[in-house]
């Protein structure tokens, strides 16, 4: 999921360089939403693993 966020971020940067403001804004917004979903799922996963008593895999 983090890969998708980075992909949309790169698309937004490239679109901004070429002057496509609407596309750049939309791609940046999508990247932001996906990134925050990733962070929420990461925190949830860490909490569930802590409650189960399992050590995180390295």
UniProtKB/TrEMBL annotation:
Keywords, sorted A to Z: Cell membrane, Membrane, Transmembrane, Transmembrane helix
Transmembrane regions: 7-27, 33-51
Entry keyword annotation includes Membrane: yes
Pfam entry (one): DUF1328
Family annotation (InterPro entries): DUF1328
Family indicated by similarity: Belongs to the UPF0391 family.
Name of the protein in question: UPF0391 membrane protein RS130_02655
Organism: Paraglaciecola aquimarina
